[in-house]
Predict the structure.
Amino acid sequence: MNETYLALVKVVMDQYKLDPITSFHGVQHWGRVNDIGQAIVAKNGGNSDVVKYFALLHDCCREHDGKDPDHGRRAAAFAKENRDLIELSDEEFETLIFALANHADGPTSDDPTIGSCFDGDRLDLGRVGIVPDKEQLSTDVAKEDEFFAWGQKLNEKDER
């Protein structure tokens, strides 16, 4: 990881309102979203850098672990405020902003990068006792039985 990314991590952590370790939306979740999203990108050709930033930022502005429908839009605003720490082209950045702002609203996407972001997050719903609905997944990769089962298995290691 480069210095700019690490500086962004520090800014995220300094403003994060939840406990980063015990929250269902904390760093363990962010890591799994990245792992799952990167595995999808490796198969569908999406942008791995956008997925990396999405994983870090998508829940960074949550106010609590319960229903928080505006957290994605707050994360998008946070990303815009910290644009200088996000090393993406303008086009990649706009993709990131769209994924952040819309991930909590439940849409799917045909865009391989946005779909990888959405599915990386959704395949980690098992951490809160929810088995994702395959109809709510964007990518064919995430819907594959073997991949879907792997995503579910990852969050069994979360022993909060």
Observations:
- The chain has one domain: 3-157.
- Residues 46 and 113 are 4 Å apart (CA to CA).
- Residues 3-157 form a domain with the Hypothetical protein af1432 fold (CATH 1.10.3210.10).
